[in-house]
Amino acid sequence: MNLPWLQTIQNDLFVRLQNQQLHHGILLDAAKGCGEEHLIVVLAKAIVCESKNACGQCKSCALFVAQSHPDIKWVKSDKPSIGVDQIREVGDFVVSTSQLLGNKVVIIPDIQRLTESASNSLLKTLEEPNSNTYILLSTTELQYVLPTIKSRCEKIRVSLPKVEESLAWLQQKTDKTVNQQGLDAYSGSPLLYLDALTSDEDLLLLFTGDLEQLLDCNLSPQSMATKWMNHLSTIFTWTYQWAKNEYKTELLANNSQHVLNSLEKILDECSRCKSLSNKAGINKGLLLSQLFNKVQNREGQ
Ligand SMILES: [Zn+2]
């Protein structure tokens, strides 16, 4: 997918790669939904490419596309955390000889999911760079990354595009109506918004329906939490948007200090939960049900 807002960073990284000035450890400090995974993939492809530009013609590029390149180590995990065993394998890979006698690449997305021992193991690997091996890391939660890891890498900020750029891009991708309000519901991410627009069910509509049920006490905070656990980060954004609108309405209508305080607490809680939600070992169900409990009792707290 062509993501024009990443083009400048990509061009800069390619130029440095070609001039042999690329840092051996790159850490993408990404805004959620900015598409950093696309950037990491294309950079990895360029690093192993014979022409160092992800040419798409060479043997390396072909192996890359077939996902069978022997000099790429991609650390993937379906679990909430990435353990030390996976990172020890990275250490072994880094010291091994390149099979195609070119560069080697390690890709570790979402490194906030590394356990403490995994982080320490990665740190050791970063401290002993191997001249032809590049370690590409990304996170959307930089505050949970060990400072020592940050200091061993070149940190590159990857931001979301501006609203106008996002809307213009979305208009090329979908026939559906797009607007800033919709974009805001996805924290300004055109990719997350597009996902929602093209998915079969309109999640936001379903969520709004459930939220009404919760507010009317027809749905318990626990049931609501179980139902929405797999959309954690999005739910915190949507609940935040809801609380923000409620706050505005309350201010104009009743102006009850008690309700306003409650809503302020919910807003704080959403921000706190959102940043916690990507951390390893978090009990997602508990986090959500506590928040929904506050939402349901917003007038009685
Ligand atoms: Zn190539």
UniProtKB/TrEMBL annotation:
Q: What class of enzyme is it?
A: transferase
EC number(s) reported in the record = 2.7.7.7
- Catalytic activity annotated for this protein? DNA(n) + a 2'-deoxyribonucleoside 5'-triphosphate = DNA(n+1) + diphosphate
Going by the entry's taxonomy, the superkingdom of the source organism is recorded as Bacteria
Which InterPro entries has this protein been placed in? DNA_Rep/Repair_Clamp_Loader, P-loop_NTPase
Alphabetically sorted, this entry's keywords are: DNA-directed DNA polymerase, Nucleotidyltransferase, Transferase
Keyword hit for Ribonucleoprotein: no
Q: Which PANTHER family match?
A: DNA POLYMERASE III SUBUNIT DELTA, REPLICATION FACTOR C / DNA POLYMERASE III GAMMA-TAU SUBUNIT
Query: What is the protein name for this chain?
Result: DNA-directed DNA polymerase
Organism this protein belongs to: Glaciecola petra
